[in-house]
Amino acid sequence: MSWQNGLTGFLAGLLISIVTSPVGVSGAVFLLPVQLSVLHVPSPAVTPTNLLFNVVSGPGALARYRRNGQLAGPLARLLIAGTVPGVVLGAIIRVFAIPGPRVFRLVAAAVLLPLGLWLCVRALRPDAPDRSPLSRHAILGLSVVTGTVGGIYGIGGGSILGPILAGRGIPMTRIAPAALASTFLTSIVGAATYGVLALSTSGDIAPHWRLGLLCGAGGLIGGYLGARLQPYLPEKALRLLLGLLATALAILYLVQGSTAASR
């Protein structure tokens, strides 16, 4: 790995995490296309490299949220209970089934685009009613699904689960620390699962350690700064930011899916 790639990875992790950590979205969700298109990390090694980024960067934002007293509560425990087994399943699927990334991008875009637009409208029109709250069983089921997605693609399930919970009226001050806590713990489990699978499976499965650590170091600083910024942002601004991120990600996936189909 060249020093230029290392510096690019560090700066990408720093800037992305500043923007995403206030709304509970792992920076890995936007770091993934950077690793694929700019840093040229091969697949499937890009997934455990992204998980390594989450492991290194996560404590920055979580330390700040804990200092603010925002990590207490049942939501984080509920998300962790679903995403941890999901990420193990996702890692196994990624190594042995290797699902096509184009299909995932299109499905993720179909979910994120309406959610992102809904959150933007909801933020700009505060009088618009939230949908009915999700039950504990529904949140647990969604956590398993998003944990599996995180295990397959290393993006962190909070990028999908966060907009869903926000659209159901849960305050962003509760969603962000819970989503990042579940992403952090599931990334540890997912990275360990890939490490075990790499011992008995051929192919480029192990993470690119130096790049993942450098990206994560940037994310560690950026996550802390973003979490420190959150209390100064009103709920309306946080929902609008999450909606814009979800919409931008959906458009990015649609463009990547169309590009892959034209090749």
Outline of this structure?
The protein is an all-alpha fold.
Distance between the termini: 28 Å
- By secondary-structure content and strand pairing, the structural class works out as mainly alpha
Quick one: how many beta strands? 0
Shape: globular
Mean pLDDT: 82
**How would a textbook summarize the main sheet?**
none
Number of domains: 1
Order of helices and strands: HHHHHHHHHH
Helix content: over 70%
- Assembly state here? single chain
Report Rg.
Answer: 17 Å
Strand content: under 5%
- Can you tell me the residue ranges where pLDDT is under 50 for at least 5 consecutive residues? none
**In DSSP terms, counting alpha (H) and pi (I) runs of 4 or more, how many helices?**
10
Pfam family, one: TauE
Organism: Actinoplanes regularis
Main location: membrane
InterPro entries: TM_pro_TauE-like, TSUP/Inactive_protease-like
Q: Which features characterize this protein?
A:
263 residues; mainly alpha; 10 helices; 77% helix; globular; transmembrane helix
Secondary structure layout:
Blueprint: H1 3-20, H2 28-37, H3 46-67, H4 74-96, H5 101-124, H6 136-153, H7 158-167, H8 172-200, H9 209-229, H10 235-262
Pfam families: TauE
Family: Belongs to the 4-toluene sulfonate uptake permease (TSUP) (TC 2.A.102) family.
Membrane topology: Multi-pass membrane protein
